[in-house]
Amino acid sequence: MSDQLNLNNSIVLDVLREIGNIGAGNAATSLAKMIDKKVDMKVPIVNVLEFDEVPEMLGGPENVVCGIFFKIEGDITGSIMFVLDQSSAINLVDLLMPRDNAEFDEFTISALKEIGNILSGAYVSSLSGLTNLKIKISIPALAIDMAGAILSVPAIEFGQMGDSVLIIQNEFIETNASKKVDGYFFLIPDMESYEVLLGSLGVTL
Amino acid sequence: MSTMIKVGMADLKVADFPNALTTLGLGSCVGICLYDPLTKVTGMAHIMLPSSKAIRKNENVAKFADTAIAELVSQMESKGAKKSRFYAKIAGGAQMFSFSSQNDAMKIGERNAEAVRMILKEMGIPIKADETGGNFGRTIEFYSEDGKLLIKTAGKGIKEL
């Protein structure tokens, strides 16, 4: 058994990219159903980044962002995190419940937890369907803080395996209102679970 | 003119007077600052994990508490500083997300801070300030003039240690 995930292996990366694509597609569909509007989604960008490059995607390590974190349980274990910058977070809540003078208040936070739950759930259920593995997510935990601090959580998880982070970037756009939501998913199975996950798709590490 | 030198995640740097060191947005990672008051040589490491021993891929010494502190001490000594005069200030080790059913993996911040304290004790380096734990991120700045540590948070103000 290897204790190192080779993110430079192109087959492994292709599989993870495809998982990202399908998961994000499913999440976009769920979002569209939830708001009962047409949601466009760009093809997700799957990137392997050095630790330092990750917070830069979210405006730098001190930029305040919103992270919604779930544990993954079942046939595989690990975690999944959905991260948004503040304007995307407010836009996302606005899509669901349009308000005047939207602020980052308690209401926004609880709405975000619920939306995060639905998106991550859709993500994981497509993964489950693809692999025939039983996968479920925990209740959400939400934090609003510096991007560096929020992203230290997935970085540390990936840090146990190597020196890079796998990040799946999604852009959702509600067609009529042209409100843009940039969201980033971090799917972080535990090391043993990577083998189970990739193995179930016929890829050996 | 003093320069503010940036230390990234899983990175370490050593600076001479009058330069200062900073690392931005520490979460569960721990920022370790070492200072020699006589030569005013400073060092800062931004570690992610407690120990290099449990992990096979461990070439990056700055990633782990044990190897990062050893490397920091050796780099500072090569600049003329002396370990016997060093003191440390540490910050970070937060738990950004909490669940009611805690498992070990989630307490990585606490484990990082604990490992740092233990290693510093083993090396005989006293800890003058310990600003670890909590559930929030921190940016730190460490000044070579007097070993002052500045801690900034999002929405919780600035603290000087």
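qc> Strands of chain B lie at 4-6, 11-15, 20-26, 30-36, 41-47, 87-92, 127-132, 138-143, 149-152, 158-160.
qc> done
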